[in-house]
Amino acid sequence: MSRKYFGTDGMRGRVNEGFMTPDVAMRVGLAAGKSFIRGDHVHRVVIGKDTRRSGYMYEPALAAGFVAAGMDVIMVGPMPTPAIAMLVKSLRADLGVMISASHNPHYDNGIKFFGPDGFKLSDEKELEIEGLVDAGVDEALVTSEELGRATRLEDASGRYVEFAKATVPNGLTFDGLKIVVDCAHGAAYKVAPTVLWELGAEVIPIGVSPNGFNINDKCGSTYPQAMCARVVEEGADIGIALDGDADRLILCDEKGQIVDGDQIMALITRNWKKRGVLKGNGLVSTVMSNLGLERLLHAEGLTLERTKVGDRYVVERMRQTGFNIGGEQSGHIVLSDFATTGDGLVAALQVLTEIQQSGMSASEVCRQFEPVPQLLKNVRFAGGEPLEVESVKRCIASAEQALNGSGRLVIRKSGTEPLIRVMAEGDDAATITALVDGICAEIEAVGK
Q: What is the rounded CA–CA span in Å between residue 447 and residue 200?
């Protein structure tokens, strides 16, 4: 069954266009409420959001739907996505909702759902909700005596602050560390600097003045240049850049050099192995993670399990195989000992822990392997299935033969745009560039 509203990470789209309207949001609230009401207990849903102006529209629309379905609504305001996953379990709620378009600009927004176990909903559950939305939700309406009510939880940020601090080894502080933290004018603009400061660090916060429209605007994990420049300017020990909903991060060392998700996963995996707490003898990542990471792990007798792109697929594989570390090169890091979804701040705390305990600099700790040359290009096409054209198939087969087992080729269609993403990696950068350019040219030729 094809999807109409949900993508790889909940619903997402342009504000007040297509299905991202307050009317649809209210109906989604009704549908999700009906889908999760079971039993005679008081049903509750936790709703959080990032700092987009449109959150003021979607929050009451969703709340109205849930209340009309008979659910009590607990609104917590701007909070990181992983905080909502944590609060669902902490508050024994039946459902969690995060209103956010993650790293997208302010004119987009989205709706993510978490089940009572704190995990994102399965494809099957999302399709069930879609079906209820389209079939009409009048039957989900309850009588006036059965209506839910909406309240605000005033101590939500304090709960998350204490949760994050508890992921650091007992008694460890970050005294002596100077940290730049870029919150992307997003959901973590209060809690992230607070956690770092309460753990003893000298904190230089940037991206902490949200106005509803500047989220992810030349800041945060998708624009780490601002963080890097500030780290060098301030002589800081490390920089932390979160995205708009703080479920992913990018770091930089004291020299202003970028540290991506692959390096972060390698560091945490090796550290947890040393401490004897690594589960699954490796980690789970996507097809986009660098071949250098895979080679490093294999050299140490560790496994890299690959999934298709999307942190939800990483989490699914982790749950199936018992791994406790997973993530994406883009900075989603899932540490299942602590959280059920990616948490940028918690992952950063693990890196800071290693720096503080080892006494080494960020550049010494975070450079775990030499990345293999990797190139990704996007090709736009007008329609049809370019990857099924024989000339394109021959071009791809020729590229795979040229790599001859010494590299990787990943070609996939975008799930949200008419784009084909072509990625190759191998030891020779010139060869990789030639192979990617050749495939892109062939796709462009047949896709016009």
A: 56
- 13 and 132 share a domain? yes
Q: 126-143, pLDDT tens digit by residue? A: 999 998 898 877 888 999
Q: How many residues does the chain have?
A: 448
Range of the domain at 382: 374-447
Cα separation of 318 and 129, whole Å? 25
Q: Is residue 77 part of a domain?
A: yes
As for how many domains the chain has, the answer is 4
d(CA 385, CA 405): 27
| Residue 329 reports pLDDT greater than 90 | yes
* Distances, alpha carbon 314 to alpha carbons 50, 293, 322, 327, in Å: 24, 16, 12, 6
CB 261 within 8 A of CB 243: no
102 catalytic per annotation: yes
- Listed in sequence order, the DSSP H helices in 322-428 are 344-358, 362-366, 390-403
Q: Which residues contact 177 (CB under 8 A, 6 or more apart)?
A: 200, 201, 202, 237, 238, 352, 355, 356
Radius of gyration for the chain, computed over Cα atoms and rounded to the nearest angstrom: 22
Residue of 102, 285, 330, 336 marked active site:
102
> Distance (Å, rounded) from C-alpha 77 to C-alpha 56?
10
Q: Is residue 52 part of a domain?
A: yes
Which tens digits make up the pLDDT trace of 262-298?
A: 999 999 999 999 999 999 999 999 999 999 999 999 9
Q: How many CB atoms lie within 10 A of CB 317?
A: 19
**Rounded Cα distance, 381 and 254, in Å:** 42
DSSP bridge pairs for 285:
306
Nearest to 350, CA basis, from 265, 252, 258: 265
Residues 289, 371: Cα–Cα separation, whole Å? 10
Torsion of CA 118, 327, 301, 399, to 10 degrees: 140
Site of tokens 């529209």: 57
* 129 and 111 in a common domain: yes
The residue from 257, 281, 306 where one domain ends is 257
Write down the residue that tokens 């190759």 correspond to.
424
For residue 202, which of 225, 236, 226, 168 has the smallest C-alpha distance? Answer: 236
What value does the mean pLDDT take over residues 348-377? Answer: 95
Q: Is the dihedral of CA 102, 62, 20, 124 positive or negative?
A: positive
